[in-house]
């Protein structure tokens, strides 16, 4: 019989090693030893350099593109399964490929569902993630999913700003539920941006539903990619009389010329988590760590205690 009282072991995928080190420190342990061998053609093989037999294993890795990050998570899950780990939890601060959560036109994949099936086939017995692009992605899994909310990180920061005439804004109709949840917690008004896209990452038209004149506005979203939506919304709100515009987004993808757009925009501040490592420093971008949140939840999962207090919205 395996010793179920063994302390859990925490391992990191290479793309999230810095965050994983902070999580392990908050958890009260060190990262496990993983060595990755790479072939000349780019194929790679991770190897656990310590026994995981009969233990609970946490593997930390955000799966933002390129696809190697997802592949590394899958390979590490498979290695843990084949090494007889008792429980294998994929800790994915950012769950990549989540924007493809449905068929929005004929003959396209549902990538989020495919990724869920691959993670389970590779050996994951539990998933811990944060601010999924769509809540229903939890239903793509047959294994337990702990879907955490970054509001537990962002709300204390927003409250510390002591902003007068605070208004929460959603940059699109799809994020209205999230915006209303923040407005309820902060007891303030909500405005919504209505946008139309010419194609992915390209906005053709944007309108504002609600009044922002004389208000300090905080845009709320789950991710920022090219920053086109946020910067366009911020500029529109300043034109409509807003005193200031900030944005909070959980996952800072920030691809292409996103940093340049942010720098030139009317955004006063962009507040993000470290679920994805920043590609460069920027005075307008403030990073709040999610390490303590994940460490606390991992500790509760291991000891079979409630994590409902981490679901603020």
UniProtKB/TrEMBL annotation:
One Pfam family hit: Pribosyltran_N
Source domain of life: Bacteria
Swiss-Prot/TrEMBL catalytic activity: D-ribose 5-phosphate + ATP = 5-phospho-alpha-D-ribose 1-diphosphate + AMP + H(+)
Gene Ontology terms: cellular component: cytoplasm; ribose phosphate diphosphokinase complex
Matching PROSITE patterns: PRPP_SYNTHASE
CDD domains documented for this protein: PRTases_typeI
UniProt keyword list: ATP-binding, Cytoplasm, Kinase, Magnesium, Metal-binding, Nucleotide biosynthesis, Nucleotide-binding, Transferase
Single annotated GO MF: ribose phosphate diphosphokinase activity
Main EC class the enzyme belongs to: transferase
Listed EC numbers: 2.7.6.1
Domain called Ribose-phosphate pyrophosphokinase N-terminal: residue spans: 9-123
Gene Ontology biological process: 5-phosphoribose 1-diphosphate biosynthetic process; purine nucleotide biosynthetic process; ribonucleoside monophosphate biosynthetic process
NCBIfam families associated with the record: PRK01259.1, ribP_PPkin
Name this protein carries in UniProt: ribose-phosphate diphosphokinase
Classification of source organism: Bacteria, Pseudomonadati, Bacteroidota, Flavobacteriia, Flavobacteriales
């Amino acid at each position: 019989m395996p010793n179920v009282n063994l302390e859990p072991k925490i391992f990191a995928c290479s793309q999230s090693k810095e965050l994983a080190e902070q999580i392990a420190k908050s958890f009260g342990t060190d990262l496990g030893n993983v060595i990755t061998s790479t072939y000349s053609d780019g194929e790679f093989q991770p190897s656990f350099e310590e026994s995981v037999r009969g233990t609970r294993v946490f593997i930390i890795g955000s799966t933002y593109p390129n696809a190697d990050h997802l592949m590394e998570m899958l390979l590490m899950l498979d290695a843990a399964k084949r090494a007889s780990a008792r429980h294998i939890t994929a800790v994915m601060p950012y769950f990549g490929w989540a924007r493809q959560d449905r068929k929005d036109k004929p003959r396209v994949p549902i990538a989020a569902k495919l990724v869920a099936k691959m993670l389970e086939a590779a050996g994951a017995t539990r998933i811990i993630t944060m601010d999924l692009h769509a809540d229903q992605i939890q239903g793509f899994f047959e294994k337990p999913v702990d879907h955490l909310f970054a509001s537990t990180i962002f709300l204390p920061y927003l409250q510390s700003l002591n902003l007068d005439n605070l208004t929460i804004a959603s940059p699109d109709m799809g994020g209205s539920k999230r915006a209303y949840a923040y407005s309820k917690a902060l007891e303030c008004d909500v405005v919504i941006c209505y946008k139309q896209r010419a194609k992915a990452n390209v906005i053709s038209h944007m309108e504002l539903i609600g009044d922002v004149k004389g208000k300090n506005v905080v845009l709320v979203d789950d991710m920022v990619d090219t920053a086109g939506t946020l910067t366009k919304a911020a500029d529109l709100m300043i034109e409509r009389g807003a005193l200031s515009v900030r944005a909070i987004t959980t996952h800072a993808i920030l691809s292409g010329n996103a940093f340049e757009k942010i720098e030139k925009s009317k955004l006063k501040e962009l507040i993000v988590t470290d679920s994805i490592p920043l590609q460069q420093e920027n005075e307008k971008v403030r990073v709040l760590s999610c390490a303590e949140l994940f460490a606390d939840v991992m500790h509760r999962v291991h000891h079979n205690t409630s994590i409902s207090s981490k679901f603020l919205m």
